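Human:
Class, as today's exercise, you are to examine the entry below, and be ready to discuss the fold:
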Amino acid sequence: RFCAICLGTMRPGHGHALFTAECSHIFHFHCIASNVKHGNQVCPICRSKWKEIPFQGPTADVVHGRSRINPLDCPQEEGWMRILHGMPLPRASPDSGQQHNPVFHASEPNTFNDDEPLDSSLSELLGRDYTESTEGLTKTVEMKTYAEFPAVLASENCDSFTVLIHLKAPSATSRQGQRNHRSVFQSHHERAPVDLVTVLDVSGSMAGTKLALLKRAMGFVIQNLGPSDRLSVVAFSSTARRLFHLRRMTDSGRQLALQAVNSLTSSGGTNIAEGLRKGSNILEDRREKNPVCSIILLSDGQDTYNIAGGSQSRQGPADYQSLLPVSIRRSSQQGQAQVPVHTFGFGADHDAASMHSISESSGGTFSFIEAENVIQDAFAQCIGGLLSVVVQELQVWFECTTPGVIINSVRSGSYASGVSEDRKKGNVDVGDLYAEEERDFLVDVQMPACCTTISTMQNEFEVLGVGCVYKDPVLQEHVNLDVNKVVIQRPRTISPQQKIACLEVDRQKMRVKAADAMSEARGLAEQGNLAGAVCVLGNQRKALSESMAAQGEDRLCIALDAELKEMQDRMASRQVYEASGRAYVLSGLSSHSWQRATARGDSTDSGSSVHGYQTPSMVDMLMRSHTSFISSGGQRSRPTRPPIKPSRSCRGTLQAR
């Protein structure tokens, strides 16, 4: 028997008082007492009105496990009441006495083209409400360019000159346009709806607290999806099964989804490839498509069916690409629109290298869930982004219009970039952006000495022309931004003021160099050279401390130093590196390469120094997660790991502020 409010089991003698209502429906006492304390006297299941209601008095009256008060301080999920009204209790099978729900035992179709149709009325409202709510707001991507120096001597052949291209997505409409009590996630008509598939590890190692916290985290995700969003859940262990088809998260959709998640049990091995294959097929076979789609993959172990030896194998590098479905690999190789797989490594025993490889190849991010009770926050941060996509198919292009100027390189992290054969044109394929998300790309160019034939009035010199085009996912319209010209001075003499480098360019160069150092250190650590890895990170901390941005106590530089120091500590010994260092570093590399927030260590805590790239929508969702977790009786704790001795850097480091 299950409580229809919290979906937990109800068995006399298991420490939970039970309440039997006049209509014969039974609930956990603490669940129903919370429901009626505000005057609600209606049964959540059959909607009959009660004459007698549970009363939390000063003394207990326990008879055969049934009580009129809750003798324990048990977690409560009051927010689920609105969703669970009318949910039927699972029926027991007359044969086995076990709980049985045909949804979870039905045979699967050969093709997953049974997705619930999109609501056409919602689609019409989507565009109309979006247009009305964005009146007077900046709805386009903000693009700025910065030259490394304001001037270069006219007589100088400049072999390397950096231009920074900065992009910022528009705000979510309800954050600025309608400051009522609705959040961006409740304003479903003002954002692009999502098709989401969660692929969840339910192998034997997930038993107990891990599975309970996973169910809680999935409950939070389900609560925050809107009626135009669609969800499907795949559970995998030795094999994989789809719990329900891709369906809209209406009230009834949420009820079924919660019931399905609550039915999960743990057993068997870990077949990540099979889970991903099924999740990918759900999206590939769907008849209709929401503008945004994604897969969330969570696992606490290593694939024991497709990868021999995991990331620790001494027989050579593991073929992690074999874990990716063919459709995702094909779109990645052909440069087509991808289905991003956001991966979450749970605990110390997951295969961080495989999870990072899966996310990197698909355009997703890799998060490291070190402390078990952070899983809901990690999911919250991820869906906070997915539920605020305001830009799609973003392409940035740039062109050298002045004779003699050519492109040396483009630093775009994991974003695909290209330079034409004559090195006069280049581009970066950015893809989706969340509300108020920012991207920074560095273009290094070579400039000739300036002569009268290419100089203009007032010694102005055009280095680059930059533009971009993208699709508005709500209106399904393409937007072209005006070309932004990067112009500097080419005087015969340079003033002291003109020799000062641009602070924005300097800080982004430090970010890229820090990411390079992390990658180099990771390579050394995998080779067993932990001392060398720590030294590389220490050298970068020293260079960072001497930068102009760090001297001005720039927040990005402070955060980078804190992250580099944390990585040094997690490389202090082989034991520490194997337990948490590898996963922490790979999650950091994922974050910096995509310039997108990932969960690692205490990064989801508001007081953490390492929470780069978080958007306001992510922060809002994290606050909701914190509030819901604390109100349900949960306690947050920092991640634990083996004792760490402070690492000895081979150079001085930036002092903690």
Summary: The first strand starts at residue 18 and ends at 20. The chain has a mean pLDDT of 81.
